[in-house]
UniProtKB/TrEMBL annotation:
InterPro entries: Homeodomain-like_sf, TetR_C_36. This is QsdR TetR regulatory C-terminal domain-containing protein. Residues 75-186 form the QsdR TetR regulatory C-terminal domain. It holds the Pfam family TetR_C_36. Transmembrane segments: none annotated. It comes from Amycolatopsis sacchari.
Amino acid sequence: MTAAGRPDRESALRLARKTFNARQRVEVNDLAAALGVNRVTIYRWLGDRDAILAEVVWRLGERTMLDAYASAAGTGGTRIANTMSAFVRQTLAHAGMRHFLTNETETALRVLTRGGHTFQPRLVALVEQLLTRERDAGALPAGDIDAHDLAYLCVRVGESFVYTDAITGEPPDPDRAERALRYLLR
């Protein structure tokens, strides 16, 4: 809400995040009704449902990744592998995310893995920043792959083990993700 108590973009996002975290379906009509605005206002502020979900998940994911990096042990590839492993574990442990992945699998995969919805490109860019930070500190050699491509690989490896049930029918496995990330970043 604005200082005057009127709903605004941020209050709509807070409500969407609260709804998501409560394992409820985020719907444009419900947000509009709860805020006392019309659907067009929600679309103008946030875009369509996929864009809203992408923004909600991005805000949760960004904070999770930054916290994981801040508390990760090691340096260089070890620190990035620890960060990504913690991110995968926390993603799988988040009740709202598990509900989203389980109950809206097609929507979740579309929102989380397609570039047009802004989640994955932002996540890749964030991991690239962390890799660059480690390289600039001299803790991670430049190697034969640039930071963007390595970040993309790290994100895709993490996704492979978070969305495994939707892709192959196997249960998600953060231990397998950790081993693969450690191998990639050794």
